[in-house]
Amino acid sequence: MKISKNFLSDRVWHFAQDYLQAYQLRFQHLPITEKIADWPSPCEQGIHQEIYSLWQPIKVTEPLTFTNVETALELTLHDDIKTYFTTLYCDSLDASCEHGDLSLLFAWNSKDFARLQENIIGHILMKTKLKQKLTVFFATTDDDDHILSIANDDGAVWVEKVGCEPHKKLAQSLAEFLQQITPRIPPKA
């Protein structure tokens, strides 16, 4: 079943808002991340305890595309891959599902989006060299050797060991997968 771009964008945005709400409920402030002076983000909303930035997910308003990646690699990326990574700027969002803990990856700013594209190109080149099914990562797991990826041919969500073929299908689509996860907020110190 083909999922519309708007439906997936809405799912990504709603999960980010659920995470934000759960975080604020536990800590009574926005999420924090280490402040890096030369790595600003539209997500940043102020300073916390002098060394942290308060942040929140922000919808991307500038045009972000994967045209350069598709042209360089002479392929078309699945629409879900492009929609997911161009919906919002955000720090990673921790989540849980019945299969374990994970962190959803996003671009923090436009420079990070460019870096993300470079990493995706590297991943695709590795998959091509190994003659494996083409996937694109979108999350890390609590097992450093495993990632969650989207199959480029049909958009299904898989677990794969880095450098290996996907081995465990988690959902038919990214939108379906996002409905299966819940925010994982760190405990209070």
Count of helical segments? 5
Q: What structural category do the secondary elements indicate?
A: alpha+beta
Q: Characterize the overall form.
A: globular
Number of domains: 1
CATH fold call: SMI1/KNR4-like
CATH C-level class = Alpha Beta
Mean model confidence by pLDDT: 94
Biggest sheet: strands side by side, in what order? 11-10-9-8-7-6-12
> Which sheet architecture does the biggest sheet show?
7 strands, antiparallel
Secondary-structure element pattern, one letter each: HEEEEHHEEEHEEEEHE
CATH superfamily membership, which one? Syd protein
Description:
It is found in: Cell inner membrane. Interacts with the SecY protein in vivo. May bind preferentially to an uncomplexed state of SecY, thus functioning either as a chelating agent for excess SecY in the cell or as a regulatory factor that negatively controls the translocase function. With 189 residues, the protein is α+β, with helices and mostly antiparallel strands. It has one domain: 3-Layer(aba) Sandwich (SMI1/KNR4-like), CATH 3.40.1580.20. Helix content is 35%, strand content 28%. It is built from 5 helices and 12 strands. The strands form 3 sheets. The chain has a 7-stranded antiparallel sheet. The chain has a 3-stranded antiparallel sheet with strand order 1-3-2, with no helix packed on it. Strand 8 and strand 9 form a beta hairpin. Helix 1 runs parallel beside helix 3 and helix 1 runs parallel beside helix 5. The longest helix is centred in the first third of the chain and has 23 residues. The chain is globular, with a radius of gyration of 16 Å. The termini are far apart.
